[in-house]
Amino acid sequence: MRAPGSPDGRIWPVRRRRRLKRPAHRPRYKGPSFNRVLPNVLTMLGLCAGLTGIRFSLDGQFDAAVIAIMVAAVIDGLDGRIARLLKGTSRFGAEFDSLADFLCFGVAPAFLLYLWSLHRLGGVGFIPSLMFAVCMALRLARFNAALDSAPAPKYTAGFFTGVPAPAGALVALFPIFLGLESRLVGMQWLDTLSHNPAVVALVLIGTALLLVSTLPVWSFKNFKVPAPAVLPILLGTGVYAAFMLAEPWAALALAGVIYVGMLPFSTRSFRRLRGEAEAMRMGEDAETDETETTAA
Protein backbone atom coordinates (compact mmCIF):
# COMPACT_ATOMS: atom_id res chain seq x y z
CA MET A 1 0.00 0.00 0.00
CA ARG A 2 1.41 3.32 -1.04
CA ALA A 3 1.50 6.16 1.47
CA PRO A 4 -0.95 8.90 0.48
CA GLY A 5 0.73 12.11 -0.60
CA SER A 6 4.09 10.42 -1.06
CA PRO A 7 5.86 11.97 -4.09
CA ASP A 8 8.16 9.06 -4.72
CA GLY A 9 5.59 6.40 -4.06
CA ARG A 10 7.58 4.83 -1.17
CA ILE A 11 5.76 2.47 1.16
CA TRP A 12 5.77 3.55 4.83
CA PRO A 13 5.19 0.83 7.38
CA VAL A 14 2.19 1.42 9.63
CA ARG A 15 4.27 0.78 12.75
CA ARG A 16 6.80 3.46 11.80
CA ARG A 17 4.01 5.95 11.05
CA ARG A 18 2.56 5.45 14.51
CA ARG A 19 5.96 5.91 16.10
CA LEU A 20 6.42 9.25 14.38
CA LYS A 21 3.09 10.52 15.66
CA ARG A 22 3.85 9.48 19.26
CA PRO A 23 4.80 12.55 21.37
CA ALA A 24 8.22 12.58 23.00
CA HIS A 25 8.25 12.39 26.82
CA ARG A 26 11.04 13.90 28.90
CA PRO A 27 12.37 11.54 31.57
CA ARG A 28 11.57 12.49 35.15
CA TYR A 29 14.16 11.90 37.84
CA LYS A 30 13.49 11.31 41.49
CA GLY A 31 15.60 13.11 44.08
CA PRO A 32 16.06 16.39 45.94
CA SER A 33 15.67 19.67 44.12
CA PHE A 34 18.62 21.93 43.33
CA ASN A 35 17.48 24.31 46.09
CA ARG A 36 18.24 21.63 48.66
CA VAL A 37 21.54 20.59 47.09
CA LEU A 38 23.14 24.05 46.71
CA PRO A 39 23.47 24.83 50.47
CA ASN A 40 25.07 21.42 51.03
CA VAL A 41 27.52 22.11 48.20
CA LEU A 42 28.55 25.34 49.94
CA THR A 43 28.93 23.48 53.24
CA MET A 44 31.16 20.95 51.47
CA LEU A 45 33.32 23.77 50.11
CA GLY A 46 33.66 25.19 53.62
CA LEU A 47 34.66 21.77 54.93
CA CYS A 48 37.32 21.53 52.23
CA ALA A 49 38.60 24.98 53.22
CA GLY A 50 38.95 23.86 56.85
CA LEU A 51 40.84 20.73 55.84
CA THR A 52 43.09 22.83 53.62
CA GLY A 53 43.82 25.08 56.60
CA ILE A 54 45.05 22.05 58.55
CA ARG A 55 47.27 21.08 55.64
CA PHE A 56 48.77 24.59 55.44
CA SER A 57 49.44 24.59 59.19
CA LEU A 58 51.34 21.30 58.85
CA ASP A 59 53.52 22.96 56.21
CA GLY A 60 54.15 25.97 58.46
CA GLN A 61 52.18 28.34 56.21
CA PHE A 62 50.21 29.94 59.04
CA ASP A 63 49.01 32.91 57.02
CA ALA A 64 47.50 30.64 54.35
CA ALA A 65 45.97 28.45 57.07
CA VAL A 66 44.25 31.45 58.67
CA ILE A 67 42.94 32.59 55.28
CA ALA A 68 41.48 29.12 54.67
CA ILE A 69 39.67 29.19 58.02
CA MET A 70 38.33 32.68 57.31
CA VAL A 71 37.05 31.49 53.93
CA ALA A 72 35.26 28.66 55.74
CA ALA A 73 33.72 31.23 58.09
CA VAL A 74 32.43 33.30 55.17
CA ILE A 75 30.92 30.22 53.54
CA ASP A 76 29.33 29.21 56.84
CA GLY A 77 27.63 32.59 57.00
CA LEU A 78 26.27 32.16 53.48
CA ASP A 79 25.02 28.57 53.31
CA GLY A 80 22.36 28.91 55.98
CA ARG A 81 21.01 32.16 54.59
CA ILE A 82 20.93 30.76 51.06
CA ALA A 83 19.12 27.66 52.33
CA ARG A 84 16.45 29.80 53.99
CA LEU A 85 16.20 32.04 50.93
CA LEU A 86 15.72 29.09 48.58
CA LYS A 87 13.55 27.24 51.12
CA GLY A 88 16.02 24.39 50.99
CA THR A 89 16.54 23.83 54.72
CA SER A 90 16.64 20.21 55.86
CA ARG A 91 17.65 18.17 58.87
CA PHE A 92 20.49 16.61 56.88
CA GLY A 93 21.81 20.07 56.02
CA ALA A 94 21.74 21.16 59.66
CA GLU A 95 23.65 18.07 60.81
CA PHE A 96 26.15 18.35 57.97
CA ASP A 97 26.72 22.03 58.75
CA SER A 98 27.42 21.23 62.41
CA LEU A 99 29.96 18.55 61.51
CA ALA A 100 31.70 20.94 59.11
CA ASP A 101 31.71 23.68 61.77
CA PHE A 102 33.32 21.33 64.28
CA LEU A 103 36.21 20.61 61.93
CA CYS A 104 36.63 24.13 60.53
CA PHE A 105 36.21 26.09 63.76
CA GLY A 106 36.98 23.51 66.44
CA VAL A 107 39.69 21.17 65.18
CA ALA A 108 41.49 23.43 62.69
CA PRO A 109 42.09 26.44 65.04
CA ALA A 110 43.11 24.16 67.92
CA PHE A 111 45.55 22.31 65.66
CA LEU A 112 46.85 25.57 64.23
CA LEU A 113 47.51 27.15 67.63
CA TYR A 114 49.21 24.00 68.87
CA LEU A 115 51.66 24.13 65.97
CA TRP A 116 52.00 27.91 66.34
CA SER A 117 53.11 27.93 69.98
CA LEU A 118 51.72 25.28 72.33
CA HIS A 119 53.87 22.43 71.01
CA ARG A 120 56.75 23.95 72.99
CA LEU A 121 55.12 22.71 76.20
CA GLY A 122 54.94 19.14 74.99
CA GLY A 123 51.96 17.08 76.15
CA VAL A 124 50.82 19.82 78.53
CA GLY A 125 50.50 22.22 75.62
CA PHE A 126 47.97 19.94 73.97
CA ILE A 127 45.51 20.36 76.86
CA PRO A 128 44.22 23.85 75.83
CA SER A 129 43.81 22.69 72.24
CA LEU A 130 41.95 19.59 73.38
CA MET A 131 39.74 21.66 75.68
CA PHE A 132 38.86 24.08 72.91
CA ALA A 133 37.89 21.30 70.48
CA VAL A 134 35.77 19.54 73.12
CA CYS A 135 33.98 22.75 74.09
CA MET A 136 33.28 23.47 70.42
CA ALA A 137 31.70 20.02 70.06
CA LEU A 138 29.57 20.59 73.18
CA ARG A 139 28.46 23.99 71.93
CA LEU A 140 27.36 22.58 68.56
CA ALA A 141 25.63 19.62 70.21
CA ARG A 142 23.68 21.99 72.45
CA PHE A 143 22.65 24.01 69.40
CA ASN A 144 21.39 20.90 67.59
CA ALA A 145 19.49 19.74 70.67
CA ALA A 146 17.76 23.12 70.87
CA LEU A 147 16.30 22.57 67.40
CA ASP A 148 14.09 19.77 68.74
CA SER A 149 13.19 21.44 72.03
CA ALA A 150 10.10 23.48 72.82
CA PRO A 151 9.84 26.92 71.18
CA ALA A 152 11.75 29.58 73.10
CA PRO A 153 10.23 32.96 74.03
CA LYS A 154 10.15 35.54 71.27
CA TYR A 155 12.65 37.86 72.96
CA THR A 156 15.36 35.16 72.60
CA ALA A 157 15.06 35.02 68.80
CA GLY A 158 17.90 37.47 68.22
CA PHE A 159 20.40 35.83 70.58
CA PHE A 160 22.72 32.83 70.66
CA THR A 161 23.44 30.91 73.84
CA GLY A 162 27.19 31.24 74.10
CA VAL A 163 29.59 32.46 71.44
CA PRO A 164 28.86 30.88 68.02
CA ALA A 165 31.42 28.66 66.32
CA PRO A 166 32.83 31.06 63.64
CA ALA A 167 33.16 33.89 66.15
CA GLY A 168 34.88 31.54 68.59
CA ALA A 169 37.45 30.65 65.94
CA LEU A 170 37.99 34.36 65.21
CA VAL A 171 38.65 35.12 68.88
CA ALA A 172 40.87 32.06 69.37
CA LEU A 173 43.10 32.99 66.44
CA PHE A 174 43.88 36.41 68.00
CA PRO A 175 47.53 35.50 68.88
CA ILE A 176 48.23 34.45 65.29
CA PHE A 177 46.77 37.71 63.99
CA LEU A 178 49.11 39.60 66.29
CA GLY A 179 52.10 37.51 65.24
CA LEU A 180 51.49 37.93 61.52
CA GLU A 181 50.96 41.67 61.94
CA SER A 182 54.14 42.02 64.01
CA ARG A 183 56.14 40.47 61.19
CA LEU A 184 54.83 43.06 58.76
CA VAL A 185 55.56 46.06 60.96
CA GLY A 186 58.81 44.67 62.45
CA MET A 187 57.75 44.63 66.12
CA GLN A 188 59.82 41.82 67.61
CA TRP A 189 58.39 42.11 71.10
CA LEU A 190 54.85 41.66 69.78
CA ASP A 191 55.91 38.60 67.81
CA THR A 192 57.49 37.13 70.95
CA LEU A 193 54.32 37.84 72.92
CA SER A 194 52.12 36.19 70.30
CA HIS A 195 54.25 33.03 70.47
CA ASN A 196 54.21 32.88 74.26
CA PRO A 197 52.55 29.55 75.16
CA ALA A 198 51.01 31.02 78.31
CA VAL A 199 49.28 33.80 76.34
CA VAL A 200 48.05 31.40 73.66
CA ALA A 201 46.76 28.94 76.27
CA LEU A 202 44.95 31.73 78.12
CA VAL A 203 43.23 32.92 74.94
CA LEU A 204 42.30 29.39 73.90
CA ILE A 205 40.89 28.37 77.29
CA GLY A 206 39.01 31.66 77.68
CA THR A 207 37.43 31.24 74.26
CA ALA A 208 36.50 27.63 75.07
CA LEU A 209 34.65 28.81 78.19
CA LEU A 210 32.79 31.43 76.16
CA LEU A 211 31.66 28.70 73.75
CA VAL A 212 29.96 26.61 76.43
CA SER A 213 28.76 29.55 78.51
CA THR A 214 25.14 30.62 78.80
CA LEU A 215 25.88 34.21 77.83
CA PRO A 216 23.24 35.68 75.49
CA VAL A 217 25.11 36.83 72.38
CA TRP A 218 23.63 38.91 69.57
CA SER A 219 22.97 36.87 66.43
CA PHE A 220 22.25 39.99 64.29
CA LYS A 221 19.50 38.09 62.43
CA ASN A 222 16.65 40.27 63.67
CA PHE A 223 18.82 43.20 64.71
CA LYS A 224 17.14 46.52 63.93
CA VAL A 225 19.33 49.54 63.30
CA PRO A 226 17.96 52.93 64.39
CA ALA A 227 17.49 55.31 61.50
CA PRO A 228 20.02 57.92 62.76
CA ALA A 229 22.68 55.18 63.04
CA VAL A 230 22.40 53.88 59.47
CA LEU A 231 24.76 56.45 57.92
CA PRO A 232 27.48 56.13 60.61
CA ILE A 233 27.36 52.33 60.32
CA LEU A 234 27.74 52.48 56.55
CA LEU A 235 30.62 54.92 56.88
CA GLY A 236 32.29 52.79 59.56
CA THR A 237 31.91 49.67 57.42
CA GLY A 238 33.61 51.42 54.50
CA VAL A 239 36.48 52.58 56.71
CA TYR A 240 36.91 49.08 58.15
CA ALA A 241 36.90 47.55 54.66
CA ALA A 242 39.68 49.92 53.61
CA PHE A 243 41.58 49.05 56.81
CA MET A 244 41.10 45.35 56.05
CA LEU A 245 42.66 45.76 52.62
CA ALA A 246 45.58 47.76 53.98
CA GLU A 247 46.27 45.81 57.19
CA PRO A 248 44.32 42.52 57.11
CA TRP A 249 45.86 40.91 60.22
CA ALA A 250 45.45 44.02 62.35
CA ALA A 251 41.85 44.35 61.14
CA LEU A 252 41.05 40.73 62.07
CA ALA A 253 42.64 41.18 65.49
CA LEU A 254 40.59 44.35 66.00
CA ALA A 255 37.43 42.50 64.96
CA GLY A 256 38.06 39.90 67.66
CA VAL A 257 38.57 42.59 70.31
CA ILE A 258 35.41 44.44 69.24
CA TYR A 259 33.38 41.22 69.33
CA VAL A 260 34.49 40.36 72.85
CA GLY A 261 33.81 43.96 73.92
CA MET A 262 30.23 43.64 72.63
CA LEU A 263 29.38 40.70 74.91
CA PRO A 264 28.48 42.82 77.97
CA PHE A 265 26.17 44.99 75.84
CA SER A 266 24.40 41.96 74.36
CA THR A 267 23.86 40.59 77.89
CA ARG A 268 22.40 43.91 79.01
CA SER A 269 20.10 44.00 75.97
CA PHE A 270 18.90 40.44 76.67
CA ARG A 271 18.13 41.25 80.29
CA ARG A 272 16.19 44.35 79.28
CA LEU A 273 14.08 42.41 76.78
CA ARG A 274 13.48 39.66 79.31
CA GLY A 275 12.38 42.17 81.92
CA GLU A 276 9.95 43.78 79.48
CA ALA A 277 8.52 40.39 78.53
CA GLU A 278 8.07 39.35 82.16
CA ALA A 279 6.41 42.67 83.03
CA MET A 280 4.02 42.27 80.09
CA ARG A 281 3.21 38.72 81.14
CA MET A 282 2.56 39.76 84.73
CA GLY A 283 0.25 42.51 83.48
CA GLU A 284 -1.70 40.03 81.37
CA ASP A 285 -2.00 37.63 84.31
CA ALA A 286 -3.30 40.46 86.52
CA GLU A 287 -5.91 41.41 83.92
CA THR A 288 -7.01 37.76 83.65
CA ASP A 289 -7.38 37.43 87.42
CA GLU A 290 -9.36 40.67 87.57
CA THR A 291 -11.69 39.49 84.79
CA GLU A 292 -12.29 36.17 86.54
CA THR A 293 -13.02 37.94 89.84
CA THR A 294 -15.51 40.29 88.17
CA ALA A 295 -17.25 37.41 86.44
CA ALA A 296 -17.56 35.51 89.73
Molecular structure report:
This protein is mostly helical and 296 residues long. The protein has eleven helices and two strands; from the N terminus they run αααααβααααβαα. A two-stranded antiparallel sheet has the order 1-2. Helix 4 (91-116) packs parallel to helix 6. The radius of gyration is 29 Å and the shape is globular. The N and C termini lie far apart (98 Å).
Mean pLDDT over all positions: 84
Q: Specify the helix fraction band.
A: over 70%
Strand elements, count: 2
Shape annotation:
globular
Task: Give the class from helix and strand content and strand pairing.
Answer: mainly alpha
Summarize the helices and strands and which ones pair or pack:
Layout: H1 14-21, H2 34-58, H3 62-85, H4 91-116, H5 126-147, E1 159-161, H6 165-172, H7 174-185, H8 188-194, H9 197-212, E2 216-218, H10 230-246, H11 248-295
List keywords for this structure.
single chain; 296 residues; mainly alpha; two-stranded antiparallel sheet; 2 strands; 72% helix; 2% strand
Condensed summary:
The chain is mostly helical and 296 residues long. Helices cover 72% and strands 2% of the residues. It has helices at 14-21, 34-58, 62-85, 91-116, 126-147, 165-172, 174-185, 188-194, 197-212, 230-246, 248-295, and strands at 159-161, 216-218.
